[in-house]
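Subject: sequence -> structure tokens, single chain

Hey, anyone have a minute? Need the predicted structure for the following. Not urgent.
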Amino acid sequence: MNSLLVAVCAAVIAIVIATPMAYVMARHRSPLARAATGWVVISQAFPFVLLIIPLFLILKNLHLINSLVGLTMVYVVWALPFALWMLVGYVRAVPRELEEAAAVDGAGRLRILVSVTAPLLAPGLVATGLFAFITAWNEFFFALVLMKTPERQTLPVILTHFLGAEGVADLGPLAAGAFLATLPSLLIFALIQKRITGGMLAGAVK
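Reply:
Had a minute. Here:
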């Protein structure tokens, strides 16, 4: 339940934040947008080890150590750059003519984003949300460092309990736990596979 709660919240928050940012970056070619693109690329080059100390200090000052809220914030920050990079490509694939037609009909920027662009971004939103969910669901290092009590630990950390003091694995329970850990991802893929399809924009401009 800890893993499910953190992963779902991180995915939803990352999508909510990244969608308007991606729209601005894709539609307005400015130095700020190019700088944001550079931030996305550079942020993916930093390993976990370099980030854990400043993140730990920040969360400690906010009294969010051993907190699912703090862990969710970390996962949102970690998933946001790549989610933003993915959604920029999807936004650029939406023809500008659709937004121009909506503007002619009197729709504002927010209405265009919500009523015109967002529905056409459904496959991209689903794929990006799935990426953010799986990233948070499988993440181990941050959860290991930030979660101190067993009742707050996530599933990847709990699976390490099946390893003995000398590194000897209890293969039966470990294999069963690993199998159960894959079920949510499989179920999500099965439920949303119809949304990850191409051709939704075919004939849209016409």
